[in-house]
Design brief:
- By secondary structure, this protein is α+β, with helices and mostly antiparallel strands.
- The protein has two domains: 23-288, no CATH class; 401-582, Histidine kinase-like ATPase, C-terminal domain (Heat Shock Protein 90), CATH 3.30.565.10.
- The chain is 54% helix and 18% strand.
- The protein is built from 18 helices and 16 strands.
- The strands form four sheets. It has a five-stranded antiparallel sheet, sandwiched between helices.
- β13 (489-500) and β14 (503-512) form a beta hairpin.
- α14 runs parallel beside α15 (472-482).
Length: 585
Amino acid sequence: MGFMNKEFFKSLRFRIGLAFFAIFIPLMVWMIYYSSYAGKVVRDQVAQSNKNLVTLYMGQIDRTLGEADEYLYNMVAEETDLIILDQPDAYYSVRYQEARIRLFNNISTTINNSKTMDMFFVYSENNDDFLIGPNLALSFDERDQARILLTSMLKNNAQMEQECTLKWCVQQIDQEHYLSHVAKIGNVYVGAWVNVKRMMIPLNLIDLGETGISVLSTEHHEPMDHQEFIAQNGIDLTLEDEIYKLTGNNHTYLEVAERSKKGSFYLTVLIPENGIMEKLPIFQRVVLIVPLGFVIMLLLLLLFLRKLILRPIYKLLMAMRRFKEGKWDTRIVPYPSSGEFEVINAAFNDMVAQIEQLKIDVYEEQLSSQRAELKHLQLQINPHFYLNSLNIVYHLAQAQKYELIQEMSLSLVEYFRYMFRSNLTFVPLQDEIRHTCNYLNIQKMRFPKHLDYEVTLKDDLEEIQVPPLIVQTFVENTIKHAVTMDDSIHIHIVIDSESSAEGDLLKISIEDSGKGFPDDVLQRLQSDEDLMNDKGENVGIWNVKRRIALLYPNRAHVVFMNGPESGAKVEIQLPMEAMDNEKNL
């Protein structure tokens, strides 16, 4: 027991573990505590400082709006010309026009002396007269858009009294936001109008960090400016009773806000979290240097561990990754390292050599087995077709149709010549279609006036390599189950190509005008159940599906369905790239 303890204390695992715990545990506890504490203190101080700043500027905005309110209320209380404008149908009277000129001069003089308002306006509802005293900096289009919006709002008394007579309300024209307030005497409205960007000019001069911004938002916390910036950074302007909160993607911004006492809007300041450090006092920065000390200690430890552990492990992992990618000749070149890694590397090299040899043996065995099974499947088809052919000749001989027997004998020669070639894994598509047409011609002799067919094949697909008998097998199944002496059957074969996410596909469609698959048979076909019975029926379909599975593992599909009106339909999809790569097997 004493010997085992001695070996354990001298082991590499114990020494690395002891060094790790001795260095990192105290340092991590210290760093986490002080970083958390310092971060909270810094955020509280910065948030309180900016909260005072926001309160100050919001008070300045409210004072500006209050001055405009005072002017509006004084005008409503003292300006007698407003009473003249309230008289209905008086627009064309001399008295009305004189009062109108005096009011225009009044509001124009006031707006020119104002440093913040964009315009003052007077609207007579009885005379539908809108009078504007605009700031000279306001363009004609801005004045016209404001007039249209305000006229529409003032005509809607319910909306106007709810939104803009009690307090300053937010209005939007295109992407611009404005503040508006209206006072009413009789049916005459006196109001003020200002662009929110003008209100924000003093705040834009404050340094809020490289990406910090100040923004006005509606009572629903929707930004009036910087919409794209706020959306891209995932910033939520909602702030309930907290002094501040962290918002944005990964909480990268500190948010403080203040609500206006004059209107339904907020003033919000967003300060980047990484910019807060620039505003710390020197003694607080010292506390935050602890992470830097942690990084330095980590680098020193990594330099120590690099030669002892990390480098051997990296070499081992790289060798395992190359081996996983199929590079069977991967070996770890011997190099000076600890005794444990020398044993590991030698064991890895021996294991890789054994796996390489085993993999080769298994692969060759599987390849031989697959070729043998494929050969068996192809040979299995020949007796099936041979018996069907003899049956057709027999029926023609019974009918004493010797000319048809001669014609069919020539067709059978071509047919079996192709069959003798079918031991190939792949054949050109045009040969397969020619063979299928030859088979259909034979069947037309058997069912005169009850069978016709059509083949649609693009010229550029004729040389595509396909497994032999892949089309003829399904055509034969149609002849067997759909053709009768009672009704005429039309078979349509369409070969086309299409592109998909998996690459270019060859699409073969075989459709007839018969009654279609019975429901139970279709369900079994679609669920890939084996339809072959003890009598050997349906061996052709099973054979084709099995050969496709061997030649194109998980890359080809056979789909069975019934047409929208009648008839059975079979769709075969084969990867064209796989055909090009495997046609010489």
